[in-house]
Write a structure and sequence with these properties.
The complex is a heterodimer. Chain A is mainly α. Helix content of chain A is about 35%, strand content about 5%. Chains A and B meet through α1 and α2 of A and α9, α10, α11, α12 and α13 of B.
C-alpha cells in the first residue's frame, strides 16, 4: 500500500521523529517499498491460524514482591544530560 | 598463537606454555596494527585487559581451572559493560558509559575471560552489512572493499582477522550467522531463551538472542557452556538442566538424518554457494548421514513477516531513547516535544528511523490486524513447517547466505538489504538454534553453511558442525591480505 507525505508525517509524529521537507519524499518512497515487501504476506489465507506471539509456550515466572534493587539514584543520574537535586531536567512543560 | 582456537590457547595456558598477559598483549598489538584499517572495534580496553590477564594468571597459580580463564574476548557493543562505553553503534549512545554489566558479560567475567574491547555493529543491530554504524563501516578482512556482514560485523571481522580469540554476537534475523558466513568463521545462534537478554540492548525482544562467534564449533561449545542458563532478570530466560556442550562433539554421525529445504536451493542462490553446500552434504553422506528433502512451504514469507514483527517490537523498545535519562540530547530544545523529536531525529540514523516508522505504522490504530496480527499468524505457519520437518530429520542444512560478501556501498535500497537474510530469518521467527560454519572459498571470499536444529538441540548442531570440521579444513582458511602473523607470539 502506497503512503502519501501527510501519512508519513503523521507516523513520524507518533514515533516522535522529525522528517524534514527535504527528506519527506525519499522517506515516503522507501517506506512504501518496504510495505510492498510486507504485503506479500497478504497472499496467504490465515483465517484459521492462531497467531504466534512468542516461539515457546512458556508462562511468565512470578516472584515474591520484595525490593531487590539498591538505590542507585546518584550513579544512574550521572548519566543524564541534565539533572538537579536528584531530579531529571527537561524543557518547561507548563507556563 | 593468536590464530589458534580457544581450545588450543586454553591448553597452552594450562600447560604454562604462554601466559594470559602474553597472549593478551599479542592481541592488543594486532589490534593496534590492524584496527585502523578494519574498524572492527569501537572501544579497545588496553589497560583493563592487561589487568584482567594478570588476575587470570594469578588465579591459575592459585588453582583456578576454568577452561576460559585468561582467554581474550571481544564483546559486541550491544552488551552493557560496567564503566566502559556501550554505544550500540549509535550516536544516541555515543557517550553512554554503562553503570552495570549484561548477564552475558558477567558470566564471561566469572569464567575469567579478558575483555579486549567492544566491537562495531550496525546501529541497534539493524543491518546486514555493518554499514549503518555511527562509527563507520567495518571492512571484511578477506577483502577490505567488501562488507563483513551484519549486524555483528565487528565481532566477525575481529575473529576472522585474529583481533581476538572469540567474540560475542547477537542474532535477531541472522546477525551472527550471516557475518560468520561472510568472514569465514563459525557463528552460533542458540534457541530463544537459552541466553539471558538482560543488559543486551533490546532490538526485537521476541527474536533477539546472543551467541558465540568463534574459529571452530568446539570453541562455540566452550563459549556456550559459559553463556547459557536461567537468569531471573530475564523473564523469557529458560530453565533447563545444565549441559556440557562439548560432551557430544565427537559422536559419530552414522545414521544422522539431514533435511535439505528445497526452498533454500531455489532461484537467487549463487552457483558457487550451492556447489559448496552440496559438496558439504556429500561429505556428510561419506560420514554416514542420510539426506532427505524437506519442505519449508512458507519460508518465502519469512522476510515479510519479520519486517512487521521486528520493527514493531523495535518501535516500542526504542521509545526509551528520549534524551532525558542518558545518551544524546539535542541542543537548546524549545519545548518537550521539540526535545523528543530532535533528539531522536539527530540521535538515530536513517535505517533505525525507517524501522521505527514501519513499526509505528504497523501498530497504529486500524492497521494492527492487517499487519501485526497477520505477521504473527505467518510466524505460526513458519514454526509449523519446521516442527513438521523435525519429525523426519535431525538437522536441516542449507546455505547461510545466497552469495559471498558484497561490496561496500553496493546495496543502497533497504529492501534488497532485507532480502540478504532470506535463509536466516525464519529461524528467529521460530526461535530455533542454528549455526553457520565455513564450507568453501570462491573468488577469495568465504562461504557459509547453515545448520538448523530442533529446540534446545544445540549439542546436536555443534556435534554435526564439529564432525565436519574434523574432516575438512575450511574453518582453518585465513583471509589472504592480512594472514601473516609472524613475529606476534
Amino acid at each position: 500500500m502506497a503512503l502519501d507525505k501527510s501519512e508519513v508525517e503523521k507516523i513520524a509524529h507518533l514515533a516522535r521523529l522529525h522528517v524534514s521537507d527535504s527528506e519527506a519524499e525519499e522517506v515516503t518512497t522507501r517506506i512504501t517499498d518496504i510495505l510492498a515487501l510486507i504485503d506479500q504476506m497478504q497472499s496467504v489465507d490465515t483465517e484459521s491460524v492462531e497467531p504466534l506471539a512468542h516461539p515457546l509456550d512458556v508462562v511468565q515466572r512470578l516472584r515474591i514482591d520484595e525490593v531487590t534493587e539498591e538505590n542507585q539514584r546518584e550513579s544512574l543520574q550521572k548519566l543524564a544530560p541534565a539533572s538537579e537535586d536528584g531530579l531529571y531536567l527537561v524543557p518547561k512543560v507548563l507556563e | 598463537m593468536i590464530n589458534s582456537t580457544v581450545a588450543e590457547i586454553s591448553a597452552a595456558l594450562k600447560a604454562g606454555d604462554i601466559s594470559s598477559v602474553e597472549i593478551t598483549q599479542a592481541y592488543l598489538n594486532r589490534i593496534a596494527k590492524l584496527n585502523g584499517e578494519l574498524n572492527a572495534y569501537i572501544t579497545v580496553c588496553e589497560e583493563s585487559a592487561l589487568e584482567q590477564a594478570a588476575a587470570a594468571d594469578a588465579g591459575r597459580s592459585a588453582g583456578n581451572t576454568s577452561p576460559l580463564l585468561g582467554i581474550p574476548i571481544a564483546h559486541k557493543d550491544i552488551f552493557c559493560t560496567k564503566d566502559i562505553l556501550t554505544t550500540c553503534g549509535s550516536r544516541m549512545l555515543h557517550n553512554f558509559v554503562s553503570p552495570y554489566n549484561a548477564t552475558v558479560v558477567e558470566r564471561f567475567n566469572d569464567a575469567g575471560t579478558v575483555l579486549l574491547g567492544k566491537t562495531n555493529m550496525d546501529e541497534f543491530a539493524m543491518g546486514s552489512s555493518n554499514e549503518t554504524s555511527f562509527f563507520g563501516d567495518v571492512k571484511n578482512p578477506w577483502n577490505t572493499e567488501c562488507v563483513p556482514g551484519g549486524s555483528s560485523g565487528g565481532s566477525a571481522a575481529a575473529v576472522a582477522a585474529d583481533l581476538c580469540a572469540m567474540a560475542t554476537g547477537t542474532d535477531t534475523g541472522g546477525s551472527i550467522r550471516q557475518p560468520a558466513a561472510f568472514c569465514g568463521i563459525t557463528g552460533f545462534k542458540p534457541s530463544y531463551g537459552r541466553v539471558s537478554r538482560w543488559g543486551m540492548i533490546a532490538f526485537a525482544s521476541s527474536l533477539d538472542q546472543a551467541g558465540p562467534i568463534t574459529k571452530s564449533a568446539e570453541d562455540a561449545a566452550l563459549m556456550l557452556n559459559a553463556m547459557v542458563g536461567l537468569d531471573e532478570k530475564d523473564s523469557t530466560s529458560i530453565d533447563r538442566p545444565a549441559e556440557d556442550f562439548t560432551a557430544s562433539l565427537n559422536q559419530p554421525l552414522k545414521g544422522l538424518r539431514i533435511g535439505v529445504p528445497k526452498q533454500h536451493f531455489a532461484q537467487g542462490l549463487s552457483m558457487e554457494v550451492e556447489e559448496a553446500v552440496r559438496n558439504a552434504l556429500a561429505e556428510y553422506e561419506k560420514l554416514g548421514a542420510t539426506i532427505k528433502e524437506v519442505d519449508l512451504t512458507n519460508s518465502h514469507l519469512s522476510v515479510s513477516a519479520y519486517y512487521v514483527v521486528a520493527p514493531a517490537e523495535a518501535s516500542a523498545n526504542l521509545s526509551r531513547f528520549d534524551g532525558v535519562r542518558y545518551g544524546y540530547r539535542c541542543e537548546d530544545p524549545v519545548d518537550l516535544e521539540d526535545m523528543y523529536k530532535r533528539t531522536r531525529s539527530e540521535g538515530f540514523g536513517e535505517e533505525v528511523k525507517r524501522r521505527i516508522m514501519i513499526g509505528t505504522y504497523a501498530l497504529s490504530a486500524g492497521y494492527y490486524d492487517a499487519y501485526y496480527r497477520k505477521a504473527q499468524k505467518i510466524r505460526r505457519l513458519i514454526k509449523d513447517d519446521f516442527d513438521r520437518a523435525f519429525e523426519e530429520v535431525d538437522v536441516i542444512i542449507g546455505p547461510t547466505s545466497p552469495h559471498t560478501a558484497f561490496k561496500l556501498g553496493s546495496k543502497s535500497d533497504p529492501v534488497s538489504m532485507y532480502l540478504e537474510d532470506i535463509y536466516t530469518i525464519a529461524v528467529n521467527l521460530a526461535g530455533l538454534p542454528a549455526a553457520s560454519i565455513p564450507v568453501g572459498v570462491a573468488n577469495g571470499l568465504p562461504m557459509g553453511m547453515q545448520i538448523i536444529g530442533a529446540y534446545f538441540d544445540e549439542a546436536k548442531i555443534l556435534n554435526v558442525a564439529h564432525q565436519f570440521q574434523q574432516h575438512t579444513d575450511w574453518h582453518k582458511q585465513k583471509p589472504g591480505p592480512i594472514a601473516s602473523n609472524e613475529g606476534e607470539a
